[in-house]
Amino acid sequence: MSLVIIVYSITLLIILISVFKVNAFLAFLVISILAGGLLGIEVTKITQSVQKGIGDMLGSLVIVIVCGAMLGKLVADSGAAQQIASYMVRLFGKRYIQWALMFTGFIIGIPLFYNVGFVLVVPLIFSVALKYKMPAVYIGLPMLASLSVTHGFLPPHPSPTALVAQFHADLGMTLLYGIFIGLPTVIIAGPVFSRALKKINPPAPKIFENAADVAPEKLPSLSISIFSSLLPVILLAFTTISLSYITEPSVKTAIAFTGDPAMVMIISLLVATFTLGLRQGMSMKKVMDIYSESVKDIAMILLIMGGAGALKQILIDSGVSQNIAVLLSGLDIHPLVLGWAIACLIRVCVGSATVAGLTAAGIIAPLLPGMNVDPNLMVLSIGAGSLMFSHVNDTGFWLYKEYFNLSIRQTIQSWSLMETIVSVCGLIGVMIIHYLQH
Asked: Residue 217: CB partners within 8 Å, gap ≥ 6?
């Protein structure tokens, strides 16, 4: 009976979000309370479970995600992202322009949140497309594929960061695995797949005819731009590798402290405040205004995460996770494939990659200890599943359609299939690493 209640609750959650357009945070709260009552949790303890779930989820994430949003906004507003893109285009030349945009998207996509990154790179894509007289979809999709992969696979983006916390995975190792899987995934979903899209060439919107035309003298240097954008990755990789070789207790403790995800993001933000802000002539007030603006973009994401944490806690406190474990133990399906499939289903129904990832994690997390799989790989498996087949219920679908002036059919042929390729290739990469481990 408890399994029926969970299926009913998750189905109702999907209907509230996708059909009735209820705010995802409110939908999570309503479903958490309803599920708690139906699963037999004492009425007086339901709100305690909800509050504990929200607190546990956000407690370990707020610093990382907020600092990540601030860093990403500064990278965009300072011109660092444009500097990196301009250099990559010069480096690769016209013949390999797709690869230039793909690697640019991957680099700037690590610190930039998806919606911010999308709005930032689209004018750049059209600027390059108009300059070289090439189809915007053909040269732009590799860049958007990079943004999608970093959004679904790599910390400090909200969903993978939250999954790392839920599964008690290692943030640095997840990031390294994510880069290892993400690069070939982007190549297949970007430059390789887009070869079939050359015929999709609608007229460019007039608004982009003079896009990305910032004076070069106002941009930060290339070295500073790359260093500031990738500093979180550099610090996480350094500390993860160092801890494997250093045995001196005091040094190991210091590195572990510095490598804590929250400390990594704080250090990176402090460095960027100087390198991309004050050093570029911005006043401290201007930099702080950028940071304040960035938080507005992620406030609802944080609330959605808190709501997902509430539902997860209800599942744990009701004991239903044990029933699910018994049921799943009889299924002849690999745990990593199962996590991916659950995330896929929710993604297609709801549209939000973040909601899909967090909801799937809430189901899988209580079962993970008995699954004998690397939690870092489970993070990436669910992350890949959360990107499956973006369609009309996803805001990214409409952003892409309207910016690129496409029909719904053309959007499905390009955008939706690209996201599907990313999802499937991501799972393949996860399984390859899993079998290499064993």
From this structure: none
Residue pLDDT, tens place only, 294-330: 888 788 888 888 888 898 888 888 877 666 655 665 6
In sequence order, what are the residues at sequence separation of 6 or more whose Cβ sits closer than 8 angstroms to the Cβ of residue 289?
none
Q: Say what angle helices 335-350 and 353-364 make with each other, to 10 degrees.
A: 140
Q: Cβ contacts of residue 348 below 8 Å, gap of 6+?
A: 388, 389, 391
User: What gap in Å lies between CA 178 and CA 175, rounded to an integer?
Assistant: 5
Quote the pLDDT of residue 298: 80
What sign results for the dihedral spanned by CA atoms 33, 37, 39, 40? positive
Q: For residue 199, what are its two tokens?
A: 């015929």
Supply φ then ψ for residue 201, to 5 degrees: -145, 70
Q: What is the pTM of this model?
A: 0.79
Q: How many domains does the chain have?
A: 1
What residue numbers bound the domain in which 270 lies?
2-437
How crowded is residue 86: how many other Cβ atoms within 10 Å of its Cβ? 22
What does the block give as tokens for 427?
Answer: 């799972």
Peptide bond into 156 cis (omega under 30): yes
pLDDT in tens, 182-202: 999 999 999 999 999 999 988
Range of weakest confidence among 1-15, 26-40, 244-258? 1-15
